[in-house]
Design goal:
By secondary structure, this protein is mostly beta strands. The chain is 13% helix and 52% strand. The strands form 2 sheets. The chain has an 8-stranded antiparallel barrel. A two-stranded antiparallel ribbon has the order 4-5. Strand 8 and strand 9 form a beta hairpin. The longest helix is centred in the first third of the chain and has 27 residues.
C-alpha cells in the first residue's frame, strides 16, 4: 500500500516536470502579440503652440501589433485638454471691464471660462531593441514614429445658456479652430512579459504639427487668420499594456 502511494507520488512529480517543460517550450513560441495600451501624457507646448496655450494633458490609447523581431505597427489616438489659455483677450470687446457678461434673464454678471481642447489621431510603426538573448524577453528600448492629424481650439465654456452673443454659432468665431498634419517621435522603455498584467511603457514624445486656422474670420479681430503654424508639443508619456500573445507555428 505504501509502495503504491510512493509510486503514485513519483509519477505525479514526473508528470508535473513534463508539464512545466512543455509550458516553457510552448511559451517560447509566443512572439507576435496584440498590444492594447491606454495612456496618459503630460505635454509642454513650444513654438506657435506656446503662444496660445500652456501646459496640457492628453488621455488616449493605442492598438498595435508586435511582429517578428519586435517590430510594431498600430494606431494611436488622444484627447487633449487644459485650462491655460494665453490668448485670453478674445472676448474683451463683448465683455465688461472685469471680463464678465451680463445675463439676459436676470441681469447678473456671468463668467465665461476659456479652456484648451483638441485631439490627435496617428498611425505609427517602430521597434523594441531587446538587449537580452532570452527569446521570452520582449522588454527593452522602444522607438516609435507616427504620422497623422492634429486639431486644437479654444473652448469658450458658457455654463449658462443666457448669452446670445456666445451661442453655439457665434462661439465658432472666437475658438481659433486649428488643424493640420502631425509627425510624432517617441523614445522610451517598454516592459512586456508573457501572461503578465504588469506590462507598461514610458518615455518622451515629441509631436510637431503643421497647422492653420480653419475659421473664415475671427470675430474679435474682424480678420481672417492665414498664418501657417508650427505647433510643437513635448510630452512625458506613460502607458499600461494589455498584451495578447499569439502562438507561432513550430519550425
Amino acid at each position: 500500500m505504501i509502495k503504491n502511494k510512493l509510486l503514485l507520488a513519483f509519477l505525479c512529480c514526473v508528470a508535473n516536470l513534463f508539464a512545466q517543460k512543455e509550458e516553457f517550450v510552448t511559451d517560447k513560441n509566443f512572439n507576435n502579440a496584440i498590444l492594447i495600451a491606454p495612456s496618459f501624457t503630460a505635454q509642454f507646448p513650444l513654438l506657435d503652440m506656446q503662444k496660445r496655450f500652456g501646459y496640457n494633458s492628453q488621455l488616449g490609447g493605442s492598438l498595435s501589433y508586435q511582429l517578428r523581431k519586435h517590430w510594431h505597427i498600430g494606431v494611436d489616438a488622444g484627447f487633449m485638454f487644459g485650462n491655460k489659455v494665453k490668448e485670453d483677450s478674445i472676448l474683451d470687446r463683448i465683455s465688461t471691464s472685469q471680463g464678465s457678461f451680463i445675463g439676459v434673464q436676470n441681469g447678473t454678471l456671468l463668467n465665461v471660462f476659456l479652456q484648451e481642447r483638441g485631439f490627435t489621431v496617428k498611425a505609427f510603426f517602430g521597434k523594441t531593441i531587446v538587449f537580452s538573448k532570452n527569446p521570452m524577453n520582449h522588454s527593452g528600448l522602444l522607438l516609435l514614429t507616427g504620422f497623422g492629424f492634429m486639431q486644437h481650439k479654444i473652448l469658450v465654456d458658457v455654463r449658462k445658456e443666457t448669452l446670445p452673443q456666445l451661442n453655439s454659432t457665434y462661439r465658432k468665431g472666437y475658438d481659433r479652430l486649428t488643424t493640420g498634419p502631425v509627425i510624432s517621435q517617441f523614445i522610451g522603455g517598454i516592459y512586456l512579459k508573457h501572461k503578465k498584467w504588469l506590462s507598461f511603457y514610458g518615455g518622451v514624445q515629441a509631436d510637431i504639427a503643421f497647422t492653420q486656422s480653419r475659421r473664415p474670420i475671427n470675430f474679435d479681430t474682424q480678420t481672417t487668420d492665414t498664418q501657417k503654424r508650427i505647433d510643437l508639443l513635448i510630452g512625458i508619456k506613460f502607458g499600461w499594456i494589455i498584451p495578447v500573445f499569439k502562438k507561432k507555428e513550430m519550425d
